Amino acid sequence: MLKNAIVVCLLIVNSAALAADKHVTIKGCASAGVENCLFITSPQGRYALYVTPPRPVPGRGIRVTGTISDGPNICMTGPSIKVETWRYTHLHCPK
Question: Which of 25, 47, 61, 71 is most buried (CB neighbours < 10 A)?
Fold first, then answer.
């Protein structure tokens, strides 16, 4: 009985964590932060980017597709996006 209760609790916790993650596409400006962090700033907000090399150049317009997570991240600021794909755009960003 206790084993079943533990399994049910784990399923609830895991489904809640999955519900918090959201697949998105966002356009904005890339910027650098401390600790080698990379961010995107857009009308939707500012997000830390987890992206494998090659990484976008800060100060350029980019379009990213990935999954938003509100969990803790190494950059310690707001939500983050685990980037699946990215590309440069013609968006003009402040220097």
Answer: 47
- Confirm or reject CATH 3.10.450.50 for domain 22-88, answering yes or no: no
Note whether 74 and 40 are within 8 A (CB). Answer: no
Show the beta-strand stretches assigned E in 1-95: 22-32, 38-42, 45-50, 61-69, 80-88
In a structure prediction context, what are the per-residue pLDDT tens digits for the chain, which is 95 residues long? 444 444 333 334 343 444 458 999 999 999 999 888 999 999 999 999 999 999 999 999 999 999 999 888 888 888 999 999 999 999 999 87
The strand pair at 80-88 and 38-42 is best described as: unpaired
- Measuring CA to CA, how many Å separate 75 from each of 9, 33, 37, 79, 87? 30, 8, 6, 10, 22
What gap in Å lies between CA 87 and CA 38, rounded to an integer?
A: 14
- Structure tokens given for 34: 């401390």
